[in-house]
Amino acid sequence: MPKNIAGIAIPDSSLANEAAELLREHGTSLLWNHSHRVYLFGALQGHQAGLRYDPELLYISALFHDLGLTEKYRSQDKRFEVDGANAARDFLTSHGIPHASIQLVWDAIAFHTTIGIAQYKEPVVALVNAGVGLDVIGEGYEDLAEEVRGQVVAAFPRDGFKHKILHAFLEGFAHKPETTFGNIKSDVCERFLPGYKRPNFCDYVLQSPWNE
């Protein structure tokens, strides 16, 4: 794997390499490439904005951000973002990483699909969200030069990513669609899960046990 792409170094510490091996072992080539693009796109946007952040924590956050979709880490009753965040917390705790750093990574993963909030948190949290936004829906696409985007994609190809990632999402939480309530991933369930109709918040309010 290249050590430097588009001017961004891939962290090469033992901690970073061990985290990468977990993704390689339990993830797929789709998630491997996507997670590295998320790191690179997030780091590139961070550099453009002049943000200070820990590259190793950003990298580990990106590596774990979708691990909650995988068979190894998915739970029966939690949002996949929380499953990934919990997996990262366990991993970092086992390596004696300080609590503040662990919490930062946990937040980065847990909030990565939470539009309108993550970008206002600490740089590591905001940049994972930004990297995901750019790679999945093209948010900020024009802010990076075509040559820079091309270097990232050449190193970690998309290979039909638009369609494949939607099915990877569904596979990760089709058994627990209720966990997507109030989140953009409910759109995936409604489009691809036969017979599924997502709950409506208004119904929850009007059908509550309160009598007034």
Radius of gyration: 18 Å
Characterize the main sheet: 2 strands, antiparallel
Q: What percent strand?
A: under 5%
Number of helices, where a helix is a run of at least 4 consecutive DSSP H or I residues: 10
* Average pLDDT metric: 96
Which bin fits the share of residues in helices? 55-70%
Counting helices, strands and paired strands, the structural category is mainly alpha
End-to-end separation in angstroms reads 62 Å
**Shape call:** globular
Strand order, largest beta sheet: 1-2
Describe the structure.
- With 212 residues, the protein is an all-alpha fold.
- The chain is 58% helix and 2% strand.
- It contains ten helices and two strands.
- The chain has a two-stranded antiparallel sheet.
- Strand 1 and strand 2 (8-9) form a beta hairpin.
- Helix 5 packs parallel to helix 6 (123-137).
Summarize the structure.
The chain has 212 residues and is mostly helical. Helix content is 58%, strand content 2%.
Please supply descriptive tags for the structure shown above:
212 residues; two-stranded antiparallel ribbon; single chain; 2 strands
Topology, pairings included?
Elements: E1 4-5, E2 8-9, H1 14-26, H2 29-49, H3 55-64, H4 80-94, H5 99-110, H6 123-137, H7 146-155, H8 161-173, H9 186-192, H10 201-206
Antiparallel strand pairs: 1-2
